[in-house]
Amino acid sequence: MSKTWGGAMLAGLLGVVGLRDVVREPDAQIGRESIVAMPCGVFRATAYRLDAQTLILEFHNGYAYRYHDVPPSVYADFLQSANPGTFYNERIRRRYAMERAPDRCLTRPAKK
Fold first, then answer.
1. Does the residue 1 lie in any domain?
2. Which of 7, 17, 29, 64 is 20 to 30 A removed from 78 (C-alpha atoms)?
3. What is the total count of domains within the chain?
């Protein structure tokens, strides 16, 4: 299941799922337009910062993590996978540098 993604193909896929290149500081909130809700039992939401190749995953339990240097092709495959939990365990978990993000950093209501 190896795929080669050119810039135009990836931009098209990311456009279809509603992602934008997110500018993010470590504790800044991500705008809601950059978040993809995950319809599976493990994840609540995900976001990806294309310029920094940073994947953010928020689990249903509220914990969130940032994974660094994740290639766009891996993120695209993750979004298209039939089982995101299995994909995460096989292709993301323990393969990329990770840090804990603030809990519910993708889905908590914006502070006014």
1. no
2. 29
3. 1
